[in-house]
Amino acid sequence: MSLNYIFPPAEQPSVAVRGSQARYAVSRIFCVGRNYAAHAREMGSDPDREPPFYFSKPASALVPSGSTVPYPPGTQNYHYEMELVIAIGAPVFKVTPEAARAAVWAYAAGLDMTRRDLQAEAKANGRPWDTAKGFEQSAVITELVRVSDTGVLQGGTISLAVNGVQKQRGDIADMIWSVPEIVANLSQYYHLQPGDLIYTGTPDGVGAVRPGDEISGHIDGLPPLSLRIGEPD
């Protein structure tokens, strides 16, 4: 029986896949916080005492690399965070890192865009980060590249520039939790499924952007990332 809706349902969020006409349908976006020690210290935390943790964004926050996004409302401190993104390709629940490795289907380069002033206010008051992290067009992503074409990424340069000036530079090997460890740890809390994306954290060097700024990002072996910041709506 076909279903009738009062209003048309939202379009299914999805990501392009290199070398395929088919797209990867996205159901959930998980994000790892403070997964690079230098960034944890940059944000005032101690990575030796406080392990990485998770927050989420709605799948509707996805926006493809190459887009122009308006400067978001409610903030005066809009930040970039350059990240490796994992796409899950098999169901996993309460698995070891060795078993988790087989569930990683593809990678992309991504940006976790953040309203930093709202995040600071939420942290100071012990409140959730939703308005700081989960807003429209805050999850930028390139096309996905399948693991069969890259292998499991254990290292490689990750960098970001604003208007041609480098702001972030690190190595995937610097992550506190590796790719298999992230998937294994997250699987202790969720039944991970195809359609789940995981943004794996950012190196130090985060900072603010303004309308007219051009962001470019690089991760070895993955498509280049670009984003232009437009005027506010």
UniProtKB/TrEMBL annotation:
Keywords: Metal-binding
Gene3D superfamilies (UniProt xref): Fumarylacetoacetase-like, C-terminal domain
Record-level Gene Ontology MF annotations: acetylpyruvate hydrolase activity; metal ion binding
Domain Fumarylacetoacetase-like C-terminal: 29-228
InterPro entries found in the cross-reference section: Fumarylacetoacetase-like_C, Fumarylacetoacetase_C_sf
Pfam families on file: FAA_hydrolase
PANTHER family found in the cross-reference section: ACYLPYRUVASE, FLUTATHIONE S-TRANSFERASE
Protein name in the entry: Fumarylacetoacetase
Organism: Kinneretia aquatilis
